[in-house]
Amino acid sequence: MEATGTEASAPELVLDDKTQRGFVNWFNSLSQDPSIVRFFDRKGFYSVHGENALFIARQFYKTTAVVKYIGDPSNGLPGVTLNRNLYETVLREFLVERAEHTVQLFEGHGASWKKTREASPGKLAAFEDELFRNSEMSDVPVVMAITLNYVDGHRTVGIAYADASARRLGACEFTDDEHFCNLESVVVQLGAKECVMPKEPETGSQAADVGRLRDVMSRCGALASERPRSMFGVKNLEQDLGRLLAGGNVEQHRDVLERPLAAQALAAVMSFMELMADSSSHGKFRLALYDMGRYMRLDSAAQRALNVMKAKTDANDNFSLYGLMNRSRTVMGKRLLKVWLKQPLVSVDDICTRHNIVEAFTTDPALRETLRDMHFRGMPDVERLTRKLARKNCSLADLCQLYRASSKLPMIEAALREHEGPHAQLLATRYADALALAHDDDHLTKFEDLLEAAVDLDRIPDEYLISAAYDAGLQDLRADKDAIEEQIDRLAEDAASDLSLELNKTIKLEWHKANNQRIRCLRITQKEEKIVRKKLTAKYMTLETRKDGTKFTNRALKEAAERLQALAAQYDGMQKQLVDQVVGVAHTFVEVWETVAGLLAEVDVLLGFAELSINAPTPYVRPTMLPPHAGEIVLEGCRHPCVEAQDSVDFIKNDCRLVRGESWFQIITGPNMGGKSTYIRQVGVNVLMAQVGCFVPCDSARIAVRDCIFARVGAGDCQMRGVSTFMAEMLETAAILKGATDKSLVIIDELGRGTSTYDGFGLAWAISEHLMEAIGCPTLFATHFHELTALKGPVGVANRHVETAIDEASGKLTMLYQVNDGACDQSFGIHVAEFAHFPAAVVELAKQKALELEDFLEPALPQAGLAGGKRKREGLDEEQQCAARARAFLQEFAAMPLDRMEPADAVQQARELYAQLQADAAHLPPLQSLLQSVTAG
Question: At 589, phi and psi to the nearest 5?
């Protein structure tokens, strides 16, 4: 075997040629799926072989020099060896950060290895200690399963999910479109880390849907795990649920079981999570029919557009909404905030309850400071510790952490009861009473009594041991150990006196490790060894000689040390048995701790909302929440919270008035870099924050609750999926047109940029009319198609623009970032190019060509009554007929189901539509002129 690089000194995986060949043959017999990473445990060092080894060498070592080969280096099996710290880093990368791999750990030697542990992004329990030894568990892993069926050309989707940490199961069925828009919203709401899908053939009518499902999972950051169809069988589902569910009553869940696709998905997720194999979970889970309308729907495009979660490229936390709002003191609160940002509320009452609590905390700084800085700071991760306790996999140190959390509960309860504001009763009934019940004499007070009786609290934090007084047998062993240790101390003093040395100065009592055993011995430095060498040789036995000195013993000391070792082994064995007993008793408090963890996390998040609202550059205000049918979203003095939080930013406030019948559809025009995108996004962010339960960065706000926020902002291409920029834009827009309701909020920025001006304008016009007339939802539409400002609609259209100022002498453009009423007829793109310091000759040529193009396009514009958006034209009646026919053609063309048509059929239908347009143009000279201009162009 060749060994190069920094890990060459690590123990080798195989030793001789025969075992090398045996290992290679065995390894090659395994599935070579690159999504599976296999680690081979070798007592502190971990090997990875195959293609993943090369990736690890490049990614983490930044070199391939550490790669070892079994056999010929030119074509042998590559491998890389990791120490413990790097191994844990790689685990986090594969399972948590990238969340794209399954990890398996093997133990053995030579060619004989056995898989001992396995984990994937949705199942982290097997590696939880390594993954979160020195880092926070930032997300709760949720696993989903999906099934599909086709009836009369319609897709029906069945989903189920399992949250093992909260012991929750859910399932539902719904119809969906070819882009799986509803499914994407559900995946985002649940925050699924892994999705189980049935293996499907690569060809056939459903093959395209399988590819789309993988795309949905990729966009949502979930690993798609394909499993055999047999995993989705429901033969034993009712029997398994009877054992798994609390109360064991399966009949009350007929609403789930009578939905066949939901039941299949539920069977699959239970099998994948191996819930029936964990007897500690039996009788503990809850099942519910998942209500898709319980939370606001957000797809991955909206999350990206509104910067909800922190991206790896963000320079600081304030760039994302989560980073800005994350003021929680506990890890539990941080996790819950991520869940809430994916599940904004749609119930006015529930939203107002959160707002009431935030208001109580904002108006009582003493309470806020007491809870955040005295009681929640340093609070352990009760949720994670409770999960370990539920698996009976926790240590005495973990129990002591829970004990510390329990001791704080009465103080938190007392602080909450001291509040005297208008929402004092809400704090008392929602939190204080629940904490008091959890900490009464029948619950966590007993837990504390158990720990106080069982654990030797005086030794904490140096070591965590069962108190000797807890068990008579343990107490006897402890007494014997103490007696032997006293004897060893006397023998050490006798030896020091015999050698004329001073104990603990020139001679020391230490430990010696040999044959995996530790025994007591004496040590002297090399300098002292030379002085007492004769006596040392005559009366004592040398155990080890090193640079730091010589370790030795005598017969009496050796016998005492061996007796101490035997007693220590018995003591440790009894300690382990007693620890298991204590953990078993503590396990009975799991449900209480689950309740407490939820309460603490919720209080922590709402305290963070209050802290953010008070300490923002300009304090936030409480929004007035209105029912969905109210038809009003009015934000006065609105700001973007993430932008105003950046250093050296003096944010310009703007008003937004979305009122049905007046300004329900708003068209925002103006120059590049003028603030259009920031303006429309800040409206979406404010609505999202309000429905999460936070105050908003406005002077005042009235918000009708939205069931969904759709955002098409800055689409990019995806070369790996074969999706162009324009296609990505169209896919996101299609999701809006098919998924939006009159209770949604739609934000569109620069639609139609990825194609020709005519096509882009036509699509923008047709989409705008559809949103107004067919859907009727409030919409913010930022565009450079100034001709769109002539739009009219039944919901009420308002034109707004971002203000600029141009110095007449120098021609310099200044952005004012103010949004005012009225349309803007210029984009100032060339001025922006001047900002970017384009060469003067290029700028001048651009101005000249822009004027030439404007003269060319002037007679060809299809919008009646406008010429370049600047001046009225003659012949309005004919022009209006021309515009109407052109719009009809564009709408007919846009309505063609291109994704379901053969290319030849699509071309033929497009030719027929165009031929009819040419026939109509014979009676409409302006339309004929337009077609001739387009053809000439």
Answer: -100, 10
